[in-house]
Specification:
20 strands, twelve-stranded mixed beta sheet, eight-stranded parallel beta sheet, alpha/beta
Length: 520
């Protein structure tokens, strides 16, 4: 799964347009030479290349017509100067090169790089390039491309992906939208992406999370120019080390009343496990008290699994208000179904006005009634639920996940967490938070129930900060899954594995010294 590798700038994520404007600002306002900037990018990418693949030759360097192609020509020049075997292919005719990209091509040729035009390569020779290559450098399409790649690029991209050869993508994989993380056509599947000047949002969410491989950031010589340019980030990239200090500190004389009471309303007939997963996850995430309101037939199993819960069998919505009165935060939705029982449960939760986390069928039930906007709620839809909430189709959500999350938040208020690789949390601010990383082992039933319980517990402890609770919840959930995957792998991962890993993750946020010290 993609891992974070830091640079000298903060974890700010920019749109492609913003990064281009930062680039122009550096050149036009700060006097940075554009070709020098391109050379710095090529050197940085080549350094990453030799560290990751010290025996990766022959290199097959594929170059486009823009500055991304210019980076590729200079990477090829660096490789030749270091004695590596290089096959450099101009996928776009070199006659189309201009500006710094043309300078880069000229320098590469002067340094001994043999550049071959794609149109002049015969099929046998083209086949041999892929058969013999140790590494492909993708420098074909940059941030200026937002539509589906056309020929000859689309054909080359397909060939790269079928080859099984490792790929280093320069700035971003060709075919990926740097702003949205969507891909309207063929897109290179990279093993390593080296990105420059400013991190691009699209590398960390949607298709980007699947095709970028490991992402490393090189600020080059941008320095303070990013902040001085006036460009604001579209999102902030969050990992566990960056959010764990957001958690409120616990004093040595703390008691359970200080950490909130989470009421989990979940589990219609046949779905009792959903409520138990959410409730146990809440208990493992620091809530002072956790109550589970579920169908009566699920109570015995709940107490057998997690006796610290207060489990109540509830047959009708009229039985819920007394439990709601005692709650700090309500988690509603896992396994409640869309029948009369679930409808009654959601109606009572909404009527109570209590801070709430709405997930799963609670979101599906919202789709059938007028939008219920509230500042004290957290919605946690997956793309399908988000599409129903916005009366659109899933591809429209995935086409621009950041925009979709922000629109949902404007409709429903509070905080919205859009699930998926590169989970997004929108809160009404210009910038959204994106949980960095992904884990294919989490693609199994019940993981969302665990997430709702984690968020509910954090919200109960941070009642004035729903967006922070949702962000920490997403990051902790992913971190715990990553820890569990080290032992279980991806295919065997189940939700209870993630719950079991939560205490070890949260332990990293606790003081190292013991609260209980005996006499010396």
């Amino acid at each position: 799964m993609p891992q974070h590798a830091g640079g000298s700038l903060s974890d700010a994520l920019f749109s492609a347009d913003s990064v281009r404007r930062i680039d122009h600002y550096l050149i036009e306002q700060q006097g940075v030479d554009g070709f020098a900037l391109m050379q710095a990018a090529a050197r940085a990418a080549f350094r990453r290349l030799v560290v990751r693949w010290p025996n990766g030759e022959p290199l097959l360097v594929l170059c486009g017509a823009g500055n991304n192609g210019g980076d590729g020509y200079l990477i090829a020049a660096n490789a030749v100067r270091h004695g590596l075997v290089v096959h450099c292919v101009a996928v776009a005719p070199t006659e189309k090169l201009s500006g710094d990209a043309r300078k880069a091509w000229q320098k590469a040729v002067a340094d001994g790089v043999k550049v071959q035009e794609l149109a002049g390569i015969g099929e046998p020779e083209w086949d041999s390039f892929f058969e013999n290559a140790g590494l492909i450098v993708d420098a074909m399409l940059g941030t200026g491309v937002s539509g589906a790649p056309r020929e000859p690029f689309s054909g080359v991209i397909v060939r790269c992906n079928r080859s099984g050869i490792p790929v280093l993508a320069v700035d971003l994989p060709s075919g990926l939208n740097a702003t949205t993380g969507a891909a309207k056509g063929d897109v290179v599947k990279a093993d390593l992406t080296v990105t420059f000047i400013g991190r691009k949002v699209g590398l960390y969410t949607g298709q980007g999370a699947a095709v970028c491989g490991d992402v490393v950031f090189e600020s080059l010589i941008a320095g303070t120019g990013v902040s001085e340019s006036g460009e604001r980030p579209l999102a902030m990239l969050q990992f566990w080390p960056s959010v764990r200090d957001w958690l409120p500190a616990r004093q040595a004389n703390a008691h359970k009343g200080q950490f909130g009471h989470v009421l989990v309303v979940a589990g219609d007939r046949g779905f009792g496990g959903a409520g138990l997963l959410a409730a146990e996850a809440a208990a493992r995430s620091g809530a002072g008290l956790v109550t589970l309101a579920t169908r009566p037939e699920h109570v015995t199993a709940a107490l057998a699994r997690c006796p610290s819960l207060m489990a109540h069998g509830v047959m009708h919505g009229s039985e819920l208000p007394a439990l709601l009165d005692a709650a700090t935060v309500v988690v509603c939705g896992p396994g409640i179904g869309q029948g009369s029982w679930g409808q009654q449960m959601l109606q009572q939760v909404v009527a109570s006005g209590k801070p709430r986390v709405l997930d799963a069928d609670a979101l599906n039930l919202l789709c059938s009634r007028a939008a219920m906007s509230a500042g004290n709620q957290i919605l946690t839809p997956h793309p399908g639920e988000a599409a129903r909430l916005m009366s659109c189709e899933v591809p429209e959500i995935e086409a621009d996940r950041v925009a979709a999350a922000k629109k949902l938040q404007s409709l429903y208020g509070g905080a919205v967490l859009l699930k998926g690789a590169g989970t997004i949390v929108a809160s009404g601010k210009k910038e959204v938070n994106i949980a960095g990383g992904s884990n294919p082992g989490m693609a199994t039933g019940g993981m969302g129930d665990v997430l709702s319980g984690v968020i509910g517990a954090l919200y109960a402890q941070m009642i004035d900060s729903p967006a922070a609770a949702a962000t920490i919840g997403a990051v902790v959930h992913l971190e715990a899954a990553g820890r569990a995957s080290l032992e279980k792998g991806y295919m065997g991962l189940i939700p209870t594995d993630v719950i079991d890993a939560l205490p070890q993750v949260f332990r990293k946020a606790e003081p190292h010294s013991s609260f209980c010290k005996g006499e010396e």
